[in-house]
Amino acid sequence: MTTQPSTQADLAKASPVFDGRALRDAFGSFATGVTIVTTSGPGGVDIGLTANSFSSVSLDPPMVLWSLARTSLNMDAFRDSGHFAVHILSADQETLSTRFASKGIDRFEGLTLDRGPGNIPMLQDCMARFTCKLAYQYEGGDHVIFVGEIVDFGHSARKPLVFHGGRYGMLLPKQILASVNSPDEFSNLSSDDLLYQVSNAYFRTRQTVVEKLESHRWTAEEYAVLSIIGREDGLCVPQIVARSEQVRGKGISASIVQKLIVRGLLHEADAGDGHVTVRLTPEGRLAVLELIAIRKSSEADVQGSLDPSEVQLLKHLLARLEQSANAVAPT
Ligand SMILES: Cc1cc2nc3c(=O)[nH]c(=O)nc-3n(C[C@H](O)[C@H](O)[C@H](O)COP(=O)(O)O)c2cc1C
How far separated are the first and last CA of the chain, in Å rounded? Predict the structure, then answer.
């Protein structure tokens, strides 16, 4: 008769010895989202780290779990604080994930925080946020598993940041793949194809702007709204959403406009014809000026080592490409 190993030491003795790299790679084949888990440490110090070990556990009572490496210097803080918050990151928050996995820096520097129970720091503008009361802790080999009971949560419609095979990614819905004639055709798209090169250049250059915005504590959505209103002050919310769809290929959520109103950057004004329009406040005008400066500096970054004649040629070719795409677009 075999007996169940009961202690950590028994488990270690009973475990087969695997190649660590291979095991890590096998674990990494499971695609996950990315979270930042925060709590408050001794003396009220803000603590947080990137974690992808998060999982939902139970709906009733509502519970989640995540696991922390025993090597973490913050183990005692998570064990003792009594509360933690889990923030699910959106696709444009990769730099935040990298920041919260880096050592020797102030991970919270420059971030605008909310406060939860026990004064725990709560990040803003994530895809979802769960405020938890620590319910259980379990030994899990070289990790400790924390189970929390959710005391509050929020959720917004964004695209998630994905982690797979040690790399960040984004979700590509299967229906987009299905819209391509055949899978073969899709996989034959090579780095020599114009479509591939244009998309690649777009994503890389856009990333430069997104990172610069994030380093100034702006999101791409906030930038979109403020730059639209900066150009055309006095639009109503559905018009702002429609304009953002034209510019970005996807609309922004009306809640972003609401947030900017709460922050005092926009205000609602009666247009006199029964419509309520959104206008910039004096603070909003300053924000638009800051965003213009960020955009100009990103433009310089993107142009990088291209000389002015190459930039002119590229602009001309991109305009031609857009015309030709418009000409073949289904009406
Ligand atoms: C995508 C990603 C997921 C991670 N998941 C975890 C995790 O679930 N648990 C953990 O302890 N560390 C995880 N880490 C590593 C920690 O974020 C990293 O070691 C951090 O420096 C730990 O901070 P601390 O030592 O201040 O606790 C992850 C890192 C990345 C980039």
Answer: 73
Q: Mean pLDDT, consecutive 10-residue segments, the chain of 331 residues? A: 52 76 94 98 96 98 98 96 96 93 96 96 96 97 97 91 91 63 56 84 85 88 90 85 78 86 90 83 90 88 85 90 83 55
- Residue 227: count of CB within 10 angstroms of its CB: 17
Q: What are the domain boundaries of the chain? A: 8-163, 173-326
Beta bridge partners of 129: 87, 154
Closest CA to 85 of 48, 140, 53: 48
For the domain covering 173-326, report its CATH number: 1.10.10.10
Q: What is the pLDDT of residue 13?
A: 65
Q: What pLDDT score was predicted for residue 77? A: 97
Q: Are 210 and 220 in contact (CB under 8 A)?
A: yes
Beta bridge partners of 153: 130
Residues flanking ligand 1, CB < 6 Å: 34, 49-53, 66-69, 72-74, 97, 101, 103, 163
Nearest C-alpha neighbor of 51 from the set 150, 143, 138: 143
What's the rounded Cα separation, in Å, for the pair 124 and 319? 38
How far is residue 94's CA from residue 107's CA, in Å, rounded to a whole number?
14
Q: Which atom of ligand 1 approaches the CA of 103 most closely? A: 21
How far is ligand 1, taken at its centre, from the CA of residue 185, in Å?
39
Of 271, 284, 278, 270, whose CA–CA distance to 252 is shortest? 278
**Atom of ligand 1 at shortest range from CA of 32:** 1
Topology of the domain covering 8-163: Pnp Oxidase; Chain A (2.30.110)
User: What is the per-residue pLDDT for 191?
Assistant: 73
The best mutation among 49, 54, 100 to test binding of ligand 1, ranked by most ligand atoms within 8 Å of the C-beta, falls on 49
